[in-house]
Amino acid sequence: MKRLLLFFIFLSLQKLHAQADATKDSLLKVLTLAKEDTNKVLTLITSGQYVEYNNLEEAKNYYVQAYKLSQKLKYTMGILKYYSNYTAVLNIQAKFDSAHLLTKEALKLATQFGNEERIIIAQQNLSATYSYLQDYENALQYLLPSVAYFERINNDARLSLIYDNLGVIYRETKQYEKSLEYHQKALAIARKSQNTYDIANVLSNLGNAYTSLKKYDTALTVMQQSLLIAKKENYENIVSNVTGNIGGLLIKQGRYDSLNFYCTEGLRLAKKLGDSLTIVNNIYGLALAAFFKKDFKKSEEEATSGFAMAQQRNYVEPLQLFADILSKLYLVKGDFKKYDYYNRLSTALSEKYFNEKMQRNVQTLDRKFETEKKEQQLLIPQAPINKKNILNYILIGAL
Questions:
Q1: Which of 395, 393, 399 lies closest to 141, judged by CA?
Q2: Residue 3, pLDDT score
Q3: Residue boundaries of the structural domains of the chain
Q4: CATH number for the 26-154 domain, one of 1.25.40.10, 3.40.250.10, 2.60.40.10, 3.30.413.10?
Q5: Which pLDDT score is estimated for 8?
Q6: DSSP for 8-64, written as a single string
Q7: Under DSSP, is residue 198 helix (H, G, I), strand (E, B) or coil?
Q8: pTM to 2 decimals?
Q9: Per 3-state DSSP, what percentage of the chain is helix, strand, and coil (rounded to 5)?
Q10: Rounded Cα distance, 264 and 279, in Å
Q11: What is the CA 393 to chain-centroid distance, rounded?
């Protein structure tokens, strides 16, 4: 999800929009004249992919139409394409539980269908959903088979995405140098293919990797390159993502003077795209910017709004951040009763978030322990070989 300043086509913004409208009009004409067959399914999928950059709900509508027609035609490949594209949008919109359910259905169907590539793609999509759910063991488990498959068939487009996802997983598991390595591999492929969307996307994630390494100036430069590409190409979903990342970087640097600009733009796009988690994060940025400008009234309005939205959607980490800033606001106002309430709530939510992460780690260790125990019970003579295989897996996962 990060990019670089490398353009192969230079278009004015006006020309870009005109070209976009023309393409959309062409697709609509094709759909109007299309028969109810598999070609129409593919056109619906293509139409959804085209508008996904700046209208997620419209994209979902096209994918649902493709799904219904595929069911009517008993067109399995169309149903699998629906799953892949629709769940990608759900992940962007932070509807992770729904995406998880559908990606598991997709993997089951792909397995029944017996198409190796669709199985791999379904596993890759399931891996992405597990990453969003912060279950990185399963994310890695479902992603690694796709590396060997797409390296074997030399599919650079998929490899760029896979390497980028691996970079995200390694960053989230605090293996920052490995994260940087895989994002750079993804970027090299994206540049080679001259795919501006992938370049912009990988650069955004690369910027996050530099942020984790505390190389803030490099991170900001890379993110701004991503933002420039995404704006020129009208990739509004990436623009929304990058502005949020820059906002997070500015908070780490304590540069609250610039925070309002990026969070205002990020909020506008997140609302347009229906990305509730990004909406919440940008509202927090606005509340924080107002707080450090000593505009406590505006800060309280933003924080109260964001707190309510995070509470409604059960976003524990943002909820804790809002509780923290609200406690400080009420301390400034001298309302010690509300200060005490939000301060206690912030502490409780922080402990809950920490405990949930610890619980996931314990569950992971339990699964590993039970797996190793069963292997030792069933295959005691092969124990030395199995031990080596487990070690190889760990070493491969750390590359």
A1: 393
A2: 28
A3: 26-154
A4: 1.25.40.10
A5: 23
A6: S----HHHHHHHHHHHHHHHHHHHHH--SSHHHHHHHHHHHHHHTTT-HHHHHHHHH
A7: helix
A8: 0.70
A9: 85, 0, 15
A10: 10
A11: 25
Segment 44-48 shows an average pLDDT of 90
Question: So what's the pLDDT on residue 29?
Answer: 73
pLDDT tens digits for 247-268?
Answer: 999 999 999 989 999 999 999 9
Handedness of CA 212, 217, 218, 222 (dihedral sign): positive
Query: In degrees, to the nearest 5, what angle opens at C-alpha 160 toward C-alphas 115 and 208?
Result: 130
DSSP state of 5: S
The DSSP symbol for 381 reads G
The DSSP letter of residue 2 is B
**3-state secondary structure at position 255:** coil
> What mean pLDDT, rounded, does the chain reach?
82
Q: What does the block give as tokens for 246? A: 């820059």
**Contact by Cβ (8 Å): 289, 319:** no
C-alpha torsion 143→149→152→158, nearest 10:
-60
Q: Cβ–Cβ contacts within 10 Å for residue 231, how many? A: 17
* Tokens describing residue 194: 């001259």
CA angle 116, 122, 124 (to 5 degrees): 105
pLDDT tens column, 158-210: 899 899 999 999 998 899 999 999 999 999 999 999 999 999 999 999 999 99
Side-chain-side CA neighbours of 207 within 13 Å: the count stands at 31
